[in-house]
Amino acid sequence: MNQTFGNSDIHYNKDFDEVDADGVLVINKKNRDQARYPEFLPTWDPSQKLPPLKFQKHDDPALRADPSFPNLFPKDKDITIKKVTPKFGTEVDGVQLSQLTDKGKDELALLLAQRKVLVFNDQDFADKGPGFVTEFGKYFGNLHIHPSSGAPKGHPELHITYRRPQEGELKKIFAHKTTNVGFHSDVSYEITPSKFTIFQVLESGEGGDTVFADTVEAYKRLSPAFQKRLEGLHVLHTSEDQAANSTLQGGVERRKAVSNIHPLVRLDPVTGEKSLFINKAFGRRIVELKKEESDFLLDFLHNHIVTAHDLQLRVSWEGGNRKKVAFFHNSGVSHTAIFDTEDGFVRHAYRVSVLGERPISDIKDYNKEEYTPGDVQAALGSIKPT
């Protein structure tokens, strides 16, 4: 399949890491001792094996929320709400997420559907530990367990990114490429991909920001004739290359690679907005088109998202010192990490992925298990060498 997938931050690294007495792969002792939040460090258990995800209906808490947000933003509190850009992204001071009631969490889900990226400053999630973060995420839906990345021991629902502080890590990343920017939507290969992500950088050097692109606005920017041409097209998403990358580095495969077909133009059942649901890391082929046609069209759409800075916003994590917790939608937003930190600095973060509905292009198909957009095996056969 020959798709490059180079994120060494999520996989076991046999050059630096260790194996404990139980056969579990762990970060080496020197790095463990230096970690600001060691309870969030990744482990990889080769004995853990999971079946592929099955279709499940999604009960979106945003659909039962009060649109005036009285529980998320009570009037008797000193709260600052600032738009990052006019059309998407909101930064909030004065709300402690860990203290939200269920109604407040419902309103959080609705605000996220509307604004797509939310950043809350000065949060206590990291201090409360991985168990609390996991339980907070479970309120919004089923949580994804990543097929190959590391997780804190006993908390498989947390996906950990950990860039080791060893000299040469960044040099290795850029040994054969000029940039490592890779806009994507999390785990789009699953039958019910991530609806949204909870993300926090715990520790980092300067830099290491995240850039988000508004794929709802990206769709709106297209001409009506072009929008009409995209309607009815579907993209094959697969985790085969991610799984191969993990295996190559000596990592684990707790779940076999999976593939699913999703609409290219996705409908959000909460807002009714349409977005471009494409993903260079996992979205490999428009199944209704020939290879050259598919490559040409996907390249245009990826380029449209990546180069349009007036569709984007940037979140600075400030080395983890401001204790920012971000929420970002995966149906209407694409994102990429920025690899501009100095060599020799750790970058340690956690991610919780809340699974949502099976992607749809028409509201009549919402939460329908029998909705079948295409033949996955035939689509896979079209991208593998013959």
From TrEMBL:
Keywords (A to Z) from UniProt: Dioxygenase, Iron, Metal-binding, Oxidoreductase
Domain TauD/TfdA-like: 81-351
Recorded GO CC terms: cytoplasm
Stored InterPro entries: AtsK-like, TauD/TfdA-like
GO molecular function, one term: metal ion binding
Entry keyword Cytoplasm: no
A Pfam family of this chain: TauD
GO biological-process terms attached to the record: sulfur compound catabolic process
Needed co-factor(s): Fe(2+)
Source species, domain of life: Eukaryota
The family this protein is said to belong to: Belongs to the TfdA dioxygenase family.
Protein's UniProt name: TauD/TfdA-like domain-containing protein
Organism: [Candida] subhashii
